[in-house]
Design goal:
With 237 residues, this protein is an alpha/beta fold. It is built from six helices and twelve strands. The chain has a single domain, classed as Spore Coat Polysaccharide Biosynthesis Protein SpsA, Chain A (Alpha-Beta Complex), CATH 3.90.550.
Length: 237
């Protein structure tokens, strides 16, 4: 029996995890001594733009997973009080970065809501995170998809004519890119093993099982993955 998970949360009661444990190897040399989430976009660090937006939208509880140069992130952001937030940290420095699925799995005990929002710390967007709070779903989550950027022309996932995930090439009408933003149910991660674990293969399996939903976003979004994209974004702003 599938549970109808809807209209049970608000931003104030929904936990958010910001994924900030990566090495930022494509961003070198800028990340030789600075973790990528602390690189500046305008006056603020990349991750701070998320914190300010989340606070404006009514969120209160944030978990940040860290590994590479994680102590710098802890020192820079503190307990979140100056953003009007409560920040807790899931530290992966002892093991090294656990990748996305492994990092979320380790952080489950800190996340206070059964349905939570996951955001890659190295994107820049004007997405309305609060719009993810009370989506009606019988599935294990929603993935937010965007139009394919120049650096990912083939996209990540196929969609059918109805805008749902297509699990085979014959029904694929369009391909789009995963934005790094999602709403997940804890149930998805409870069954996973501890340790280093990539999320991509897990998502593809769940799509084949029709246990994930797609949400299309047409607004501003940038994957700030290279020094060139960082400089371009700063110039545009």
């Amino acid at each position: 029996m599938t549970m109808d998970r809807s209209h049970t949360n608000s931003p104030e009661t929904t936990s958010v995890i910001l994924l900030a444990a990566g090495h930022g190897t494509r961003m070198r040399p800028l990340t030789n001594n600075t973790p990528k989430p602390l690189l500046k976009i305008g006056e603020h660090a990349l991750i701070e733009h998320h914190l300010y937006r989340l606070a404006e939208q009514g969120f209160k509880h944030i978990v940040i997973n860290t590994a590479y140069l994680g102590t710098q992130i802890h020192r820079a952001l503190g307990d979140g009080q100056r953003y009007g937030l409560e920040i807790q940290y899931s530290d992966e420095s002892d093991t090294g970065a656990l990748e996305t699925a492994g990092g979320i799995k380790k952080s489950l005990k800190l996340l206070r809501s059964e349905s939570f929002i996951s955001i890659n710390a190295d994107i820049y967007t004007d997405f309305d995170f609060a719009s993810l709070v009370n989506l009606e779903t019988q599935n294990l989550g929603y993935l937010v998809l965007v139009e394919n950027p120049e650096h990912n022309p083939m996209g990540d996932f196929g969609l059918d004519k109805k805008g749902s995930f297509a699990d085979d090439l014959s029904s694929t009408e369009k391909r789009m890119t995963y934005s790094g933003i999602a709403n997940y149910q804890k149930e998805l991660f409870r069954q996973l093993p501890e340790g280093k674990l990539a999320l991509g293969p897990i998502l593809k399996t769940l799509i084949q099982q029709k246990r994930l939903s797609a949400l299309l976003f047409k607004g501003s979004w940038t994957d700030v993955g290279t020094p060139g994209r960082l400089a371009q974004l700063n110039k545009a702003l």
